[in-house]
Amino acid sequence: MIRVSLRKLLILSCGLLATATTVSAQELTPQQETRLLKRFPQIDKNGDGKLSADEIEPIRGQLETAQKRRQENSAPAKSKPKGPAPTHSDLQYGEHKNTVMDVWLADSNQLTPVVVAIHGGGFTGGDKSKYHGCEELLECLEKGVSFVSINYRFRNQDSRGIRACLLDSARAIQFIRHNAKEWNIDKERLAAFGGSAGAGTSLWLACHDDLADPNSRDPVLRESTRLAVAGLNGTQATYDVLQWPDFIPSRIKWSAESAKARGSDMTSAYGLKSIDDLDTAEGKKIRKELDMLAWMSKDDPPIWMRNNQRGGPTNPLDKGHVNHHPAHVKRLKKQADEVGIKTVAIAPAVGLRPEPHVRMIDFFFEQLGVK
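Above: the chain's sequence. Below: its structure in token form.
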């Protein structure tokens, strides 16, 4: 039986866990067929509520064009770099084509800290070029801090869903440490930050137990994944989104029908086959792995976090509001305070207005020992 909290979640998380639509007439899922019938009711010639290959043929061209546009949007953007040129561009750190990074090495006679930027995009898009020429990059290089911006595979490129994205980012941290001697980097002073999905990833890295495998044949995987400090812009409190209705307010009355309609979005993001799998042993194991709140402990690094979205009850169709609701920061601060993690938590809509104002990069420099 689907639990009440699950019904709530499936609406709340519809934006974060959205999937691309497959347009093959022979491989339409029931959800895709329902969407097509709603958008193009006239193509159901015999009125049986089903779509045959002949009925879908008149709009095949439109569907293929839409699919091509989605694929283009999900591919890493090719834009002209801004700001100083990287020391290393498109450096491959993993086997997947998206596992590349740009590296700016600070000019210093001493070991340098390093700040890693992880882009957002719902785990389905975005690119490391977002941080070319950014304020954080320029200030880091000015103060003798190295900087890295990474790409990672998208969740629709791996059967594990968002777990694959998170593990790519973890490997990027290990790869940087593996090259620490050559790059003149201090392994102990490594920070990560990002927005939206990049924020959630930085939080997951900050809270998760160390993924280093000292016995691995791959020397990269022997390195630590732990951070010295993390920065979150527009974060999620946990990727066990079954918990979201417990702390995100809403006026909506939930129904089993609306939950099932969005079930495929979430299950694919978790790498599961059906909505019912969420409460199986495997589903619970995956949700636990993605629950940053549960991973939090007193030995985790300091965290700077900010969600500037409005507060109050939310419309579940407003995806950005739900995914970046200030209640995420409020919930994170509550958990961090309970376990004893140092934080700067900014979410004015829920009363979190620390004074004096502390910029993320200044918080980083303080925690990294940068004068």
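The longest strand covers residues 185-195.
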